[in-house]
Design goal:
This protein has 179 residues and is of the alpha/beta class. Helix content is 42%, strand content 13%. It has a single domain (3-178), classed as 3-Layer(aba) Sandwich (Uracil-DNA Glycosylase, subunit E).
């Protein structure tokens, strides 16, 4: 299978994920799973935490207010959204936009692992502490873990890519200094 077909398989697997505690919430609200979008050959992958309402309504990652912040940050370094790949650990919206639960991360994270394996980015930029913690633990950087305020903007090398933890773009909505 080529990259596109492999990513379509992930989409189909998430759509059929009836064992997820978020599945019934998705169906009740007519939400869509949010798998990811962007270049399948991206050198940079952005990984958020979980979809919000706008994302769940459209099936597109970072399309609400946080997405506008992300888009402006990409533009500031002359990157187009289409040149990167954007996804999240959790592929379905948690109720009331709450933080992802450990069991939800455990259930959805293998899809992210597959996306990273398929796309093979040179850099993974985590957006928020849940994404940072998962990726650091998954790729052997547990000993480097610290609060996101201490790791924001640092670069770590895994065996497969560089990891750069950043604040979630929503943090800049509340505190412009974080932008």
């Amino acid at each position: 299978m080529n990259k596109s077909d492999e990513l379509k398989k992930i989409h189909a697997d998430v759509v059929a994920l009836k064992d997820s505690p978020l599945y019934s919430y998705r169906i009740e609200n007519k939400y869509l799973p949010v798998i990811g979008e962007g270049s399948i050959d991206a050198q940079i992958m952005f990984v958020g935490e979980a979809p919000g309402r706008n994302e769940a309504e459209t099936g597109r990652p970072f399309c609400g207010r946080s997405g506008k912040v992300l888009d402006s940050l990409l533009a500031s370094i002359n990157l187009k959204r289409e040149e990167v790949y954007i996804t999240s650990i959790i592929k379905d919206r948690p109720q009331k936009n709450r933080d992802p639960l450990p069991e939800e991360i455990a259930l959805y994270a293998p899809f992210l692992d597959r996306q990273i394996e398929i796309i093979k980015p040179k850099a993974v930029v985590t957006l928020g502490r849940f994404a940072m913690e998962y990726v650091m633990r998954r790729y052997g950087l547990e000993s480097e873990l610290a609060p996101i305020s201490a790791l924001h903007g640092q670069t770590f090398q895994t065996s497969n890519f560089k990891l750069i933890p950043l604040y979630h773009p929503a943090a800049a909505i509340c505190n412009q200094k974080l932008k």
